[in-house]
Amino acid sequence: MKKLAKQFIIGATSALLVAPMGVGVATAAPAPVTDGAGQIVAPVRTSISFEYSPTGFHVGTANEHESRPGLSIVKLYLADHIYRVSASQADKDAAAQMIRVSDDQIASELYARYPDSINETARYYGLNETYGAAHWGYSRTSTFDTVKYLEAKKRENPYGPVLEAMTQVAPVAADGYVQNGGTASLPQVIGTKFGWDDSTQSFTATASFGSDFSVSAMTSGNKEAMTEDVRNAFTDSLLAEGNPAQQAVWNSTQQFKGSVSGSSDAAINAEIDRISGLLINALG
Predict the structure, then answer these.
(1) How far, in Å, CA of 8 to CA of 28, rounded?
(2) d(C-alpha 153, C-alpha 174), whole Å
(3) pLDDT > 70? residue 259
(4) What phi and psi, each to the nearest 5 degrees, are found at residue 98?
(5) End-to-end CA distance of the chain, in Å?
(6) How many CA atoms lie within 13 A of 50 on its CB side?
(7) DSSP the chain
(8) Where does the record locate the signal sequence feature (predicted)?
(9) In Å, how far are 76, 77, 90, 165, 172 from 107, measured between CA atoms?
(10) pLDDT tens string 196-249
């Protein structure tokens, strides 16, 4: 264990040496709670993916690559296609409204005109766990793909129409569903797309982004179950007033945990967390 702890200290120190030490933009990204394998902790009913934008640090549950019912999350992919092709302004306006109020009728009308939209967007962004269907409502995607997509959109244009519509989501959807909970309950979220099955009880999903992170969750259960799992999977913010050096230490911690996933010595992870805490406090 001493050898492993020493390796961690070396890695964290190296991260500090390459991290910019000036005054940086404060981050308030939620901090994932991970296990000894470096994966987000959540019940198997829920898959979660998270990415920290400034460094590209990515972490998820063990099942984050599981292709699940895409629900209304796939409306993002449908809208994206419409914005990238020579669609009419009316269709582009409809796509924005579809995202804001999650209107199924609009989605069906647009999908009838652009039947390859979801698959085309999946090909365009390399979303290998996303599949369109004859009806948009039967399409599938994963939390990994959703976060990959959101991060790509942020790099392209953080003020683009898809992300903008997500920041303007209506409190109540077209079908009366209250659009809250899930990843939208995390601190510093700017925009969210919500998804639910017709019963609102069997499957739910959310995809959110903040200025420096993207996060997605899918649950075999209702909104309350998803929200509970998401809230338990994150602390409000490990680095609420952090700087790049602090973030580098935290990233190094999570990556090192993953590298010792085969170890059964719980003390290793406890030692890593202890050292990380000391380093972060020292840098504060």
Answers:
(1) 25
(2) 25
(3) no
(4) -60, -40
(5) 27
(6) 28
(7) -HHHHHHHHHHHHHHHHHS--S------PPEEPB-TTS-B---TTEEEEEEETTTTEEEE-TTTT--EE-GGGGHHHHHHHHHHTT--HHHHHHHHHHHHH--HHHHHHHHHH-TTHHHHHHHHHT-TT-B--SSGGG-EE-HHHHHHHHHHHHHH-TTSHHHHHHHT--SB-TTS-B---GGGGSTT--EEEEEE-TTSSS-EEEEEEETTEEEEEEESS-HHHHHHHHHHTEES-TTTT--HHHHHHHHHHHHHHHHTTT---HHHHHHHHHHHHHHHHHH-
(8) 1-28
(9) 10, 11, 13, 15, 17
(10) 999 999 999 999 999 999 999 999 999 999 999 999 999 876 544 445 555 555
pLDDT band, residue 258 (cuts 50/70/90) = low
Q: Given pLDDT bands bounded at 50, 70 and 90, which one contains residue 253?
A: low
Structure tokens at 1: 């264990």
- Are 46 and 223 in contact, with CB atoms under 8 Å apart? no
CATH 3.40.710.10 positions along the chain are: 43-239
Query: Can you tell me the distance from the alpha carbon of 26 to that of 56, in angstroms, rounded to the nearest whole number?
Result: 17
Find out whether 97 and 173 touch, Cβ atoms under 8 Å: no
CA distance 214 to 147: 6
What pLDDT is recorded for position 18? 41
Q: Give the domain 43-239 fold.
A: Beta-lactamase (3.40.710)
Percent of the chain clearing pLDDT 70 (strictly above): 74
Whether residue 136 contacts residue 77, with contact meaning beta carbons closer than 8 Å, is answered with no
At 156, which amino acid appears?
A: E
Give me 158's structure tokens. Answer: 């953080």
Distance between CA atoms of residues 121 and 119, nearest Å: 5
SS3 of 242-271:
CCHHHHHHHHHHHHHHHHCCCCCCHHHHHH
